[in-house]
Amino acid sequence: MTATQPSHAVTGPALRKALGRFVSGVTVVTTGHADSEDGIHGMTANAFTSVSLDPPLVLISIATKAKMDARIAENGRYGVSILRREQEPVSLHFAGGKPCPDQVRFVERGGVPLLDGALVHLACTVYDSHPAGDHTLHVGHVDELWSCHGDPLVFFTGDFRALELVRDDAPWGF
Ligand code: FAD
Asked: pTM here?
């Protein structure tokens, strides 16, 4: 970036475009119970991040207008499923896009629903919730986790991508 480039006005579209250059994975956040009156609710979210190792905390940022926001507040628990590269159709389904009900299967683990076939499952209890503009930050205590090998689904500049390694896939060393 050169010093002569003008700054952009901080509008919603400019912010989305700039922040869309920050690469993320894709998750489906889930809450509820299959046998409860309201059932299970899921939604696609990429505003997910790690927060703390001790205690083990993660954070999801959920739009206040999303049904998920009230459902998490009611239930006090949520699941995070980090999606595999092959799960793009499922991520569109849970974002209100093209439905693929045949590919939607939940498993219950640690007392929360999770999406079958994901790379990582986290079962969380709400630790704290903070209003933040038009979103709520739901900090979750990770009660249980399950993790397996595979390639993640990646989101960048408003579209889905696959991860390309620049070197050999070396062990992490931890
Ligand atoms: P709805 O829009 O009613 O539900 C979402 C979809 O999931 C619907 O199609 C519904 O049919 C389906 N669904 C829900 N429960 C079930 C079930 N039990 N069985 C089968 N289908 C079900 N928004 C944010 O607030 N934060 C984010 O971090 C975020 N990240 C996103 C990342 C990506 C890549 C995309 C594409 C969207 C993201 N969104 C995010 C937008 C968000 O996913 C949508 O606005 C979503 O529609 C909001 O869901 P909702 O809770 O309002 O419920």
From this structure: 0.95
- Residue 43's nearest CA partner among 65, 16, 13 is 65
CA distances from 152 to 4, 27, 164 (A): 37, 10, 10
Question: Rounded to the nearest whole angstrom, what is the distance from the C-alpha of residue 149 to the centroid of ligand 1?
Answer: 25
pLDDT tens readout for residues 67-110: 999 999 999 999 999 999 999 999 999 999 999 999 999 999 99
- pLDDT range class, residue 24, cuts 50, 70, 90: very high
For 119, residues 6+ apart whose C-beta sits below 8 A from its C-beta are 82, 83, 84, 147, 148, 150, 152
* Pocket of ligand 1, beta carbon within 6 A: 26, 39-47, 61-63, 66-68, 91, 93-96, 104, 155
Residue 41 in contact with residue 35, Cβ under 8 Å? no
| DSSP for residue 65 | T
CA of 102 to the centre of ligand 1 (A): 17
Helix H or strand E encompassing 43: strand 40-45
